[in-house]
Every structure is written in C-alpha cells, then in structure tokens.
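Record format v2
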Amino acid sequence: MIHPNIVMIGVSTGGPIALRKLFSDLPPLNAAVIIVLHIPQGMDFRIAKGLDAVSSMPVTLAEDGEYLRERHVYLAPGGFHLMLEGNSRIILQEGPRINFVQPSVDVAMKSVIKPLKNAKIIGVILTGMGKDGASGIEHIKALGGITFAQDKESSAIYGMPKAAADTGAVDFECAPHKIRKKIAELLEGSGK
Amino acid sequence: MRTTKKLIVANSLIALVIVLSFAMFSLSRLYTESLREEHKNLERSIRTFWELIGHKGTGFRLVGGQLLVGDYVINGNFEVPDKVQEIFGGVATVFMGDVRVSTNVLNDNGKRAVGTRLVGPAYEAVFKHGKSYRGETLILGQPYLSAYDPIRDNNGDIIGVLFVGAKKSSFLEEFNQIRSPIIFMLAVLLTSLAIVSLLLLKMTRKFESAEANNLNFLKTLLNTIPSPIFYKNSTGHYLGCNKAFESYVGLSQDELVGKTAHELWLKELADRYQQQDQALLNNPGMQFYESSVTHADGKLHDVIFNKATFLGSDGSVGGLVGVILDISERKQAERELAFRNILLSVQQESSIDGILVVDENAKILSYNRRFREIMNISPQLLESKDDSPVLEYVTGQVVNPDLFLERVKYLYAHQHETSRDEIELQNGSILDRYSAPLHGSDGRYYGRLWTFRDITDRKHAEEKVKNAYQQMLDIVEFLPDATFVLNEQKRVIAWNKAMEALTGVVKSEILGKGDYEYSLPFYGERRPLLIDYLGEDDDELRNHYEYVQRDDRTIFAQVTLPPLNNRESRFVSITASPLYDRCGKQVGSIQSVRDVTENRHVNQEKSRLELQLQHSRMMQSVMVQLGHDLKTPLTPLTTLLPIFSKQINDPQLKRLVDICSENALQISELIDKTLNLASLSTMLTSAEHKNIVLTYALDALLASSFGDVSCQNAIAPDIVIQAVPDQLNKLFANLISNAINYSPPAGIVRITAEQTETDVTIAVRDEGIGLVPEHLERIFDEFYKVDESRHELARSGLGLSICRRIVLNHQGKIWAESPGTGKGTTIFFTLPRNIQQSN
Amino acid sequence: METKVMIVDDNEYIRESVEILLQTEGIQIVSSASGNECLDQLETGFRGVLLMDIMMPIMDGWDTIRQIVKRGLYEGNIILMLTAKREPDEKMEGIQTYVTDYVTKPFNPMELLDMIKYYATILKNENPCHDSP
C-alpha cells in the first residue's frame, strides 16, 4: 500500500486565526493534512467551512473510515478522538478525554506509524493552552518526522507550543507564515 | 457452397472442442470438489470420534489386556463407535494394538467383527511408520474412504488405532449420473458430424442446450457459496455475481451487469478497485488486498478482496473473478486495541511514576519516560525490548544488587504474587518499587507491571525528623560558630566548643543553668539575649540591636558588645531561631554568635548590596504590575483615537489626534518591551535549556523575506548549543531586524558562527551605516539610540538591551565591532556549548 | 442573519470603546458588566461572538464560561477572552475547548475587528448535513 505524505497539525485556543494565517496562500500540498483542533461538537463544521473559504485545498470534517487523499485537509470533529490506521485511513473513536480534551492531539499523533518508502511525516503544534501534543510530537520526531512549533511571539497562548518545544523534539520554532513556507518547501517535488 | 460447408464443419469442430473441454473441465472440477468434500467429511468424522472418546477420560493405557481411556474400558463397549456411525454413517472402530476391540464393522455372519486384525497399507502406515493413514477401501463391497489414526499412551508408544470409514456420499454418485448423459451427448455430437447438412441444425441445438446446462450448473454452484462473488470482463464491466454478492451490496445482478465500478461505487473506492484490477490484468494470476466496500446497510465495510484472472475463449485474459471476505469486526477489534494502547501510553507518559511492563517471557512491552529518567537508562537499551540487559543495568545501579536480583527472580518465578519494597540506588535516590502480575479476564498471566516512585525526598525528610534532635546536638558541638541551645524552660542544653573558646565558660559549668545565666559572659549581667526576643516584633528588636533582619523564623542581628573584664568591645553577628518538633510545637531555641569585629566593613558592604538587590526586585515587580495595570486604561485610547481621527475633516485637528494615537501606541509598545525585559531578568532554570542546532533555529527565522535586503545563513549544521529556544529566537530576531534596518538597499546581512571547545561565537554582519568607537559600548544600554535623527516611532531603543539580557542569561558575552561610519557593523555574541548550572 | 457581539467587562470605558468601535462598523453590540449579566442575556436568547474579560469581581471569565456550558447556553456562540496578561492560565484547564481565542489588551482595533468579522462569518456557517459517525 502506498503511504501518502502526512501533515498533522495540533492546535487549541487561538486556533482558527492561526490556521487561517497558515492556510491562506498555502499552495496545494502533496500531502494529506489533518488538523486536530480542540473544539466542541457543533462548532467543528463551522470552522471547517471558514477554513475551506481561505484554503487552496478542500477542507472537510474527517469522517470515520475515510481514506486519506493528498491535497486535502481534514478537520477532526469535536467529541471524538481521531486516529489514523496505517497512515492511510481515518478512524474516529469515542473515549475518555485525554489532557482534558477530545479530540486529543497526542492520541492522533501517536497513531501515526513509520511510513513506507519516502513518505514524509510533518507534525505541527500551534497556539493553545495546556500541553496536549507534546508527547505526540516526540512520537513523530522518533518516527523520523519533521516537527514545528509556533513561536511565542505569534502565539495567542504559548502553552502547547512551549510544552512541545520543551521535549527537545521540535525542529523549527517560528510564526505561521514561516511554517507555511517551510512546509511547502519540504513537500516540494515529493508528489506523485 | 463447399466453402460454406467447410466453414460450418470447421466451426462445428471448434464449437465441439470448446464444449468438450468446457464439459471436461467442469466435470473434473466437480469431481475434485466432491472428493474434497468427502475428505472433509471424513476428517470431521474422525475428529468427532476423538472428541467423543476424549469425553470418556484422559490418557490411553493398557491395563490387564484391556484398552482404557481414563478409567473407561473400551473393550467390548460399542457406545462411542455407534455414536459416530449415527452421526456420519459409515463405520467406526477402536483397535487395541492391531485387534478390533470396539467396532460396528460386521463380519459375514452379521455380527460385530471384534477380534479381527488390521492388515494392509493402513497397518504399515500406523505400526511401521507411526503415521495416520487416509485412503479408499472396500468394506462389504461398498466404496468407503477410510481414516486411521494411531492411539498413543502417555509415553508416546502406539497402543491402538482409531478408525472411521465414511461412505462415499450420494453426491459422487450423482456426479456419475450427470457424467453419463453428457458423455452420451458428446458422442451424439461426434457421430452427427458425418451427416453434415442434416445434423447441422440438430448439432447447433444440442450445443446450445449443453452450454446452457453448464452455465446453469456453474450458476447454481456459485449461488450456493455463502461468500460474495463477482466477475468482470477485461474492460472492467461486471459480467455477473452470485446471490451472496447481491445481498451484500444491495444490488441485483441486472443492476450490476454491464456497468463499471465507477458507475456503481464511490469515486475513491472505484479508483482503488480499478487500480487494483488493472494491476491484476497486467500481471495475471491471483491477488489479495484489503479495502472497503459499500455494504447494503450504507456503511463502509472492511474486506479482503481475493481476485484471480480467468482466460477467455481465445486464450487471452478474459476477465477476473473476485471473492469478498468481510473483516469489519476483526478490524473494529484491532482499532479498539490500537486506541487502548495509545490511551495507555498517553496516560503512562503523564504518570509521575516510572512504569515498566513486561510480558510473560519478560520481554519489555512498554515503559514511560519517567522510568527512563529515574533509572537513567539510555533509550537504545530499552528499545532492544530485551529484559536482560535492562535488568543487568538496573542491577548495577542499586546499592544491594544481590538482594534486588533475588527479589526479581523470585517474582518472575512466582507469577501471581504482588510485591512492594524500597530500593536504594547508588546515586542516593530511594525508590518505592511495586510489582503486580497482569491477568486477563480469563485469569491467564500476561506479564508483569513494575512501577517505581522516587521517594527520596520523603524518605530523607522522615529520616531527618527522626534524628533531628540528637543530630542537632551533635552538630552544634562541632559548629565553627559559638552556639548554644535552650530548652523550653530556657535552660542551657548545649554549649559547644567554639562557645567555650569565645566566652571562657566551659560546658560543665553552664549546662542545665537558666535565669539568664548565659548572658553573663556577654554583658556581665543577667539580661535577655537575641534568643529571648524571638517572639518580639522588629521595632522592639531595633531598640537593642544595630541591624536586624528576619528570614522566616530566624533573626539575624548585629550588635556591639561592651568591654568586659579584660576584653575589648566586640562587634558580633548573632543568629537566633526557635526549634520545633515534628508536630510544629516549639521545644527550644538556638543562638549562635560570631565575632565580626574585623570584617565589620565587609559586612556593611554586603548588607548594602543585599538591600540593593531587594530594592531592584521590588522595582521589577512594580514594573510588571504597572505594565499590566496600564494596559486596561490604554485600551480605550488605542481603540477610540483611530475612529475619532477617521471622522475628523479638519487636517490640523486630525494631525493632533493622530499624534495622540501614535503616542498611545508607542506607550503600549513600550509596555510590552519593558515587560519583556523584566521577564528576561528572572533567573533561568537549567531545565529550560535545550540542545539547539543553531543553523535550523536561524533557518526558521529566515523563512520569510525582508524586502530587498538578503540574509545569508552561513552557520555549519554541526554547531549545537544549549539555550532557551524562545529566548534564542528573540535574540536572533532582534539582531536581524536591527541589521536589516540599518542596511543599505540591496544590502547583505550575513550570519556566521565559529566554535571552540567551550563556546560558540556568532556574528551578525551588516553593510549599513556603521558605528564610531564611542557608540560601540553604549548601543546595548536601555533607550540608547545612535542616530537621533532616525528616530522611528516603532523602535523604542530596547531591542539591543533585550539582546544583552538574553546573552547574559546564557552566560555569554555580546559586543559590537565596526571599522567606522558607513562601513557596516558586526554584532558578536558568544553562547556556551554547555550551560553551567548556576544558583 | 446579522452578526451580534457581546462585550463582557467590568470596566465601563472598555465596554464603551468597544461598543463605539463596532458600531462604527455597523456591527450590533450589547454590553454586560458582569458574568451574571452575560448569563441573563444568553438566557434571553442572545447568540453571537462573546468578548469576555477574565478578571472580573464576583464571577470571573472562567467561571462564567463554566456556567454557560453547564446551563447548555454554549451552542451558537463563540467565546474570545479579553485579557491584559498573555500568560497561560491554569484556571482554563478543562474548558479550553470552549475558548476559541485570546485577545490581549490594549488590542489593535483593526485586528480586533478583523477577528470578530472572521468569527462572525464562521458562526454563520450552517451545518449542511449533520452526520456524525
């Protein structure tokens, strides 16, 4: 089975604006983009639509059992944990709150497996309260992925990015527009 | 006419050959299928036989010339073989050695053939080769398929044989019945060739009916198979499917036939199917893969596709046939498991205990970061998943390795025990170790959980309290400062050597004395000392002492003692503190006295510095508070002034409002930078320092462009420093924006780094206006600006002082160099490669 | 549907200046001087973007949000926090899902407007087909 490139983004408070900055002017990526945003049910589809309006890639709410496609953005719906199966398919699972939240970034990132061939894994932690995503980003780094955390200056709340950076597993700390540029560079020419 | 006839004959011949081969193929398939079914039946039959006999007892043995299973005597007991016969038909026998002792095979007289012997190839297989035997035999003229399994005793020796013979089912006879008419039909077809014109019609008719028969038969066969089956031609159009497929996907065969995947299924699925089909057609043979199918219930089901190509009439690939195996439930279970594992690992990571889980073979299943930290084990060692090097390593860490190892071995040997004890490590840590078995719901042992909690602090605290009193007295004795201790009744209970030396009063004279006796050596009269003022407030103390400072419960004071006997006046530092028992009740007090007449001046300087430090800390907290407090009243200004400005038409008035607005913004920016500087001034803990690959950190900042000024990152990728990431980013950002601001159009800003054994020196070089020597020092001062005429609103003059603060926080140096005005500036700073722990 | 905004702040100058700022842009805005007033407005049907001060007497911003969630008044609103400090606040733990963004005082009026407009458009998005798996 062919593994797609994966960009997984974990974000909380300040997320919609940070995501808007990240996705406006972002060219379509040769990767499936998965966003885990701490949101309640009922708000998720609104955020997805808002993001869809500024993004060059279609943005939809992730559905259970859906196969990942490149050049597509999936937003985890509220009230479920999102996991990937074999890096190629979305699984939504009910379960306890982790790090006070559901969906949890740690759960999503920890479900990523070592990709076959030369597929790239990119993990990003943007603004947010708490420390969800820190052990997830460590996991992605351990798989040989490339990791980003939003810098303090541009974060509405420098909680999650700090926790991620404190693990020592973050490669780049910068503002969303720089993350955008770097990701586009990293995925350039790796398309099929 | 002749050619037509020839053509017809040729065509007929071809048709005949096709029908013949098709019929032969079907027949042979049918035959093998039937035979396989028969063998399955036979296996079921002998398995049942084993099970039934197994119910009677465990273990076969020979006792007194009889064959027993458990305590059940088999000889002459026909219950089990008859039961087998009842279920499967055929015959069943138990042999003791090679003699029939329990059977329903009948002899010529119609009686049970007990006592007869086993002969032939079955005997050879069982007794000479110790193997089971399967084969065809004739019993009473009936064709039977037979199975013989050896019976072994507890030593593995063959002491008997189990036999079943299954009747060939009616299916095989049906097969024979079907076979004859088909062969007959073919014969008719063959003879009809001789009479070409007349029989041509007849032949055609027969051919058609034969094909219809065959298709019909295949169809029935397919429909009896419970798995969904479909077949497609080589262009991907469905040719047909079985009933199971129709109900699985909720489409009838009519809706299916002639359509392609894209006309029927979701695009993503159809894409996948088509991709896989094409791969198979390009490379004919078999194919298995996991995918999903839209089930009749509307949901996606996980399935395994099992596909194979078939040949068309022309010998090329005609299409493919696929069988679907639904694995949704298995997948669901797999997912649940994966989810539980992730939850577990996230929960494990957040535990304050070190956790290690091993399986029943003591292989490492999982561990958390805390475990690694507590034991100080390298991840590589743990990743090997092998318990023994880890155990060896941990054993090397503990103070009493033999006892530890014994305990571990005991627990691995006694799977069901839990245990808890304390382990002392060589580095002084004390761990609370708990170990419990992991049992499944069925009680099976799956492995063992080990948790380790660092209780060093608690342990030490306990110890301390326990021995505090005695220890204190012992310590007091050897303190270099003159020290004495009073009990609750203000009687002297300790008077140390230094005290004897200072006062000339020996221990034995003063121990147990009260009523201010202890003040005599100091003042020559009975009066309260600092130790007696512990409850008083500071103002009262200041009446008696020159300098008073309180730290929690301890009072520090300085006083000049009057001249006494043959002693000059002395200046002393005194410390006094109450003593408490573990319940917090005061049980006494302690005072120490140091003669500091000589270094009085030094001390005065010290306390002045201390006061200054205190003062600056206070200023800092006032600054922070003020900063936050200013933000709220500033908000209406920054919000309303721009609106106001927009609504004004008078340009002069507008300018006035804009000036106000800009200044409000500037104040708010100043507040930010001031708060920033204040927060940078607090001490860093070493935990905040991370190893940073310098060139990456810089790369992240340079990802955006800076007008026409270009920034070059010339730092080698192998340079790694220890720094606080957030502060390092700010440092670079400030220096680069500074360099860019002073750069000429199309200028170049170049960042380089060099490392020595201990330090890394980083240089940020611009081609800008440069600096004269007297500015070089001062540019790092707060609010210092080089060029007043370039006063820009957005630049508050704190940028470089923030840089200096950050570099100082990292125990580095920062300085500027410039060959002169107009020749560019280089800012250098050093960062240590390894941060030293500072207090 | 018109976008509505509610400012919840105990400082009347802040309330007033935000009111004026939004009114000049033609955005409907109501004010609440305390957490309780805010809850009353929600009980009587207000739905829209909430700008919530954190430091308020009696009931602070976090407690107000807890009440909103507890009384089932969250659906249809977006909550943005207004604060002088930008530090992570541990009192937020457990309710961060309901806090969509953070605005630091003194805010840039243009950025605040941009933010409010963006969240207002998001809020207007209706669910096309609510099919939770």
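The CA atoms of residues 9 and 21 of chain A lie 13 Å apart.
Strands of chain A lie at 6-11, 32-37, 59-61, 72-75, 81-85, 89-93, 121-125, 146-150, 172-174.
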